[in-house]
């Protein structure tokens, strides 16, 4: 129950502004939270207007929404979900507004229950989905022993996998976390780099370290790495091992060969979960060599115990421009393929 003396937003119909249009007013009964919902200079309302093509206006503790009926419903759902965040004492900023817009968009998935979204619980708080693809991914991470996550950059594939790994480690459901990725594209040719092996591979594993530090205090990450509870290593180090009671993540899997991918997948031991993430539009393998990720998807999709989650540009949760950049490249590639 909310500790704030406020009631959820209540919608009351207004006369439709135009033929076929719709208008509603939302009333928010906590004036201390309302400025946080609106944002500085009403920037959150402006962003919802831009994204959904509705008209929003605030007077007192009421926000009026007008526009095409389904767009009005979407804007109402977005505002109400943001209000519930504030009632729970959570923050609302640009990322949360973008997430609310995506999750409330009935054109994406009208069946999605906004009030009962899945979340990953860590000691630093709940990590919830910011798109419908992420909601499906979190469900898959909780249910399946092996998950393939495929899609463009910025969709949270690695971040959410690390969050689930940390949650399961802290709950005692696994004994350790193993994070891996191919170093220096697919061939893992590290000899030309200066320094010892750790210095050679650390730059390529940095995204995994960053995600870990977001999930637990830095001193705890260092301590657990020292005891072997957390291991970050290039893919080449996986050969010959059996990984039991572990949460194992292979990142940037599009840059594995078919042989490397099979080697990695067959390291799975008793009580182990595996997550394989990658973006098939960013393969760095030499021409003529099939991506191990593509080969695995062709071979294993539909096998019991394996879940495949595919993200699209609508699941990109970085800056909105990132989604448009991904779309532009996809359109160019599709046009080039059509000409061939």
Overview of this structure, please?
By secondary structure, the protein is of the alpha/beta class. It has twelve helices and twelve strands. It has helices spanning 34-38, 43-52, 69-87, 94-104, 132-143, 157-170, 184-188, 197-215, 218-227, 258-265, 292-300, 320-339; strands spanning 10-14, 22-27, 55-59, 62-67, 120-122, 125-127, 146-150, 176-181, 230-234, 246-250, 273-278, 306-310. The chain has a six-stranded parallel beta sheet, with helices on both faces. A four-stranded antiparallel beta sheet has the order 1-2-4-3, with helices on one face. A hairpin with a 2-residue loop joins strand 5 (120-122) and strand 6 (125-127). The longest helix is centred in the C-terminal third of the chain and has 20 residues, at 320-339. The N and C termini lie far apart (60 Å).
Give a nutshell description of this structure.
The chain is an alpha/beta fold and 340 residues long.
Main sheet properties = 6 strands, parallel
Q: Mean pLDDT score, rounded?
A: 81
What is the rounded Rg? 23 Å
Q: What's the arrangement of strands in the largest beta sheet?
A: 9-8-10-11-7-12
Q: Which geometry do the CA atoms define?
A: globular
Helix content, binned percent? 40-55%
Number of helices: 12
How many DSSP-defined strands?
12
Class inferred from helices and paired strands? alpha/beta
Q: Between the first and last Cα atoms, what is the distance in angstroms? A: 60 Å
Strand content: 15-25%
Q: List the secondary-structure elements in sequence, H or E.
A: EEHHEEHHEEHEHEHHHEEHEHEH
């Amino acid at each position: 129950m909310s500790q704030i003396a406020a009631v959820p937003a209540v919608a009351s119909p207004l006369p439709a502004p135009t033929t076929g249009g719709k208008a509603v007013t939302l009333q928010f009964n906590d004036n201390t939270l309302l400025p946080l919902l609106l944002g500085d200079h009403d920037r959150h309302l402006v962003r919802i207007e831009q994204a959904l093509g509705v008209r929003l206006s605030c007077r007192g503790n009421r926000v009026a929404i007008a526009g095409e009926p389904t767009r009005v419903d979407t804007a109402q759902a977005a505002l109400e979900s943001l209000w519930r965040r504030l009632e729970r004492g959570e923050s609302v900023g640009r990322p949360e507004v973008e997430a609310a817009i995506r999750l409330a968009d009935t054109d994406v998935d009208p069946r999605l229950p906004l009030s009962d979204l899945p979340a990953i619980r860590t000691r630093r708080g709940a990590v919830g989905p910011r798109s419908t693809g992420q909601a499906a991914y979190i469900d898959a991470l909780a249910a399946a022993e092996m998950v393939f996550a495929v899609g463009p950059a910025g969709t949270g594939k690695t971040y959410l996998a690390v969050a689930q790994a940390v949650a399961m480690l802290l709950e005692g459901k696994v004994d350790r976390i193993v994070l891996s990725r191919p170093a220096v594209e697919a061939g893992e040719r590290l000899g030309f780099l200066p320094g010892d092996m750790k210095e050679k591979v650390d730059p390529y594993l940095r995204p995994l370290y960053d995600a870990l530090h977001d999930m637990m205090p830095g001193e705890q990450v260092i301590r657990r790495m020292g005891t072997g509870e957390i291991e970050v290593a290039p893919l080449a180090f996986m050969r010959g091992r059996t990984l039991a009671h572990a949460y194992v993540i292979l990142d940037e899997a599009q840059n594995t060969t078919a042989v490397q991918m099979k080697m990695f997948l067959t390291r799975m031991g008793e009580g182990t979960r595996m997550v394989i993430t990658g973006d098939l539009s960013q393969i760095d393998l030499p021409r003529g060599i099939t991506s191990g990720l593509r080969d695995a998807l062709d071979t294993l999709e539909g096998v019991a115990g394996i879940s495949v989650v595919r993200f699209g540009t609508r699941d990109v949760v970085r800056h909105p421009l990132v989604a448009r950049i991904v779309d532009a490249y996809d359109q160019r590639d599709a046009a080039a393929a059509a000409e061939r």
